[in-house]
Queue: 4 jobs
Job 1
Amino acid sequence: MCTRARRLIVSAAGLLLATQVASAGGRQDRSIPPDQERYVSAQLPNIALTTSTGTATDLQRVANSRPLLLAFVFTRCTGVCSPFLMSWRTADQQMSRRAGVARLVLSFDPRDKPADMAEVARHLGVESDPAWTFGVAAPEDIRRLTQTVGFWYDWDESRQQFDHPAMLAAVRDGRLVRLLITGTVTSGRLDELVREAIGEFIPSYPLPGRARFRCFQYDARSGRITLDWGFGLLLIPVFTVSLSTAIMFAAGARLRRTGQT
């Protein structure tokens, strides 16, 4: 009886798992950040959009041959959207390399209108800054664009809110070059993102959900690059081999001296 009961439990668990997988429809795992390696270098679709001022334009014209920082929000968000945007604006003001970079904030909520995005711009205090563009687009175009960069959003009926990550995408020449998934944007991380968008060399940087292994440390304020603890780890094998070799030579010399006496 016990064996039969265990078999029934295992079969039921397998059926439940199969049902859950089928209902998910192959969707991305929402519990982890998107895998950058899967999306980097993807060509972004040149979707049409309407800015907060009511101007009809598209993604390429907003970038205007400049590096582009792209974020997705919705104006009725009661969670991460507002603090995320505020931290981005603050970090942006602290950066020394602000010129020559376009910033685009798009809504993924089909209820949002240009006037709603204009209110977001006013709230951030950047409504008159030409480097910032706020806009909306057709739902199918937003879906194509978000899927290209790995951004997801799911409607939660019980909370009447969208579940979604806080993410900045760096785009160069119409292609995704890097993602920053964080609820709070710091000046250091933003500077690394901008340098990547511009095409400058970044020695190393921590990936979301992975160990912070750095060979170099970059100071966003001074622009200086210094060695970090990760560089020391790279020297451990060299030091170990050198020490082992020295011990072997010393032991061999001692044996020769003993044999001669």
Job 2
Amino acid sequence: MAWKVEGTYFETCSCNVVCPCTVASFDIGADYDRCAFALVFSVAKGEIEGTDVSGTRVVAIGDTPKVMTDGNWSLGVFIDAKTDEQVEKLGGVFGGALGGPMGGIAPLVGDNRGAERATIDIREDGLTHSVKIGDAVDFSVQDIVPFGIETGQPSRAVGIFHPAGSELTVAKATNASINAFGIEVDGKSAFSAPFSWAA
């Protein structure tokens, strides 16, 4: 059955600003021996197989080898939703079982650390995006406005391969305290973007 979700997205990862896996290619290699990341999705509007998922939130915490296409990713997911049905449907989309952008990444995950329901507090204010999940996740990113750009428009990365979309705003982590599913993320690099998925 068909589904569609749309909203806003931001992330941080352990690479330096700017993440080579995103702006160049998954197979170019991270800045360090491994890449640890947190991906934040705020679903403003959505329906999955007849279930309304508007107003839900999903945060994926992951760890990958230096070269992401080598596979064997570790991944755990937090889901903030009101009903068990919403959790199940969101798990299908964000876990890749229902296709879409995450369906292409799912084969790279070798260590699925499961999903947990949690209260996810997301705040977005202009160039700043932040998320808090209990004591496990607390980080903020800020979109980067290049020196000399009088319009105040942040830098964009375009024509890239990324599940959130082919155009992202370049950002940097301003603080990062992330330790969940046995994965610790020292966030430095960051991106933000609107996202719209359908299958």
Job 3
Amino acid sequence: MLPQTASPPKLDGWALILGASSGFGAATAAALAGAGCDIVGVHLDRRTTLHRVDEVTQGIRSLGREAWMYNTNAADEAKRDRVLDDLALRWKSVDGPTSFRVVMHSLAFGSLLPFLGPNDDTRTSLRQLEMTSLVMAHSLVSWTQALVDRKMLRSGARVFAMTSTGAWSVWKGYGAVSAAKAALEAHVRQLAVELAPSGITVNALCAGVTDTPALQKIPEHETMKAIALRKNPHGRLTQPNDVADAILTLAQPQSHWINGNVIHVDGGESIVG
């Protein structure tokens, strides 16, 4: 007798995706919508990349779910508050929910210059260091604080943040982002402990090398891809859907005891020398 095929995981409620227009955020938004979640997406796109947002939005709505998208700087506290104010009014107008089931932090924007260079234009400045950490690390704390203050995180919620092996290893031009990722992992641990009494978990996901728009901006990314292909026991790069599937699994109620971790989603890439 053949084994029965497991039913796809199901979820209810709303998910907030910070960085929803491409890469891990877009894939996760689609996966959560397919499982039953309505989506609030925050992204920062110019006219040349807005078509990606339209594709993500249409994909979510084709699954019968809501897709409310906000094109704004997620690292700006005033703009964050405007998003949450508007969201609260929209929820109230439809007599809807008041809290999120899933939150994903997948913001990728920062300096990719080396620390040392012959002049200011060829090296990372202090301002760029601060900006990179604000966007890719500290904004996780800022959004979590605002959601808790507004009672927009329900008991049993799952918070996820995207880190990388660059948090502890050195890649060309990745110094500012590496520092931000290390800070992000520290924030995840602290938030995990402080939110545990509320039944909310916080974990970081460390994806393998993935061919996303963010990766393509890193110097010598083609070399990174080649090394990852050599190392990965599955013989392929990690894909955004691999991360989305992991989040879909970890968002289930049965994952409530997984908290404060850095979870590798890379098919075994990181354990191969």
Job 4
Amino acid sequence: MIIGAQLYTVRDFTTNLTDFSETLKKVADIGYTTVQVSGTCAFDPHWLQGELQKNGLSCVLTHTNTQRVAAEPQAVHNEHQIFGCHYIGIGSMPGNMVTEPEETFNSFVGNYLQAAKTLKALGSHFMFHNHNLEFTKSPDGKLYMEKLMESFAPGEMDFTLDTYWVQAGGGDCIEWLQKLKGRVPCVHLKDMAIAAGEQRMAPIYGGNMNFDGILNACLDAGAKYLLVEQDDCYGRDPFDCLKESYKSLTLRGLK
């Protein structure tokens, strides 16, 4: 398994191409060789190809505009091919999972199933990233995560399992990695701590989650890329948080 940096962590430093370029250098200087591109400014795929090569990085996953994935899967695939990325992800289901979960779910399946099939036929992989709301129970008693697994076949849509949001949704990360075995090539590593009486995101091994067990479960589930992400660093420098997570993971033999 290869550890990487989810650039959403440092999204405030990718709002223009100059800063984006410097951010890629900083991430590479920490030691990461792999990134997920998410939350950045717009970029030309040839520009990204050059910047990745310059810094000895590869992009293994993106979060891409949901409307484009549904409407233009061929074009999205072609663009990702330029910078060598085969995993095309989205961050969530379009819609409102809080007030209209069933409508949001049904709309998602209806709008994205064909796009997922198209991407698979082209040789790309459509990837879904969970939050806690997918662990809401549907009217038939199933969790929406379970219904997503059933509605898309393996290879049509696989999962970027987010460890923090599984925990926040009341799920067990190890159990879900087992359930999704063979369908989780990419995992978001994100720890959970308690501070000031609230749940907070933390660098890996900086919180309370069972990351020894989670990492073993990732290996058993067939995960290829473990992408460090921290949406909120609570005033800390996000590059320092990425560095802390990197050090903790490399001390355990990952790289």
